Amino acid sequence: xxxxxxxxxxxxxxxxxxxxxxxxxxxxxxxxxxxxxxxxxxxxxxxxxxxxxxxxxxxxxxxxxxxxxxxxxxxxxxxxxxxxxxxxxxxxxxxxxxxxxxxxxxxxxxxxxxxxxxxxxxxxxxxxxxxxxxxxxxxxxxxxxxxxxx
Length: 150
Known about the structure:
This protein is of the alpha+beta class.
């Protein structure tokens, strides 16, 4: 007697269904993992710019020429005061002064990939804030990465 070898259609369909269920759980987790990796760029550059702004203040006794102006306007800061780091992939950066040049806010805005929908800030007092997280407006006094709570 000859035996048929192979899988039945039901067995193949069950396997496909199981793979589909596993993929539907794994893909969102992977996307979140990638997003968290990309937003680290903002944290790194905001911290770096904050240090540079404090060094600038030590030399000039202000953060910029006047309130509402661009930060670090002195020629000594020309290598970095464009707030466009060469290795930036996912965020754009900007800085504005206030209080007659005695205060500033540096902003990182997600511009590509999974970083879109994220906005982070830091000011002269070192106060970190998140204003947009995963596309939703928030008002938190920290840099959110994983969840919408500090």
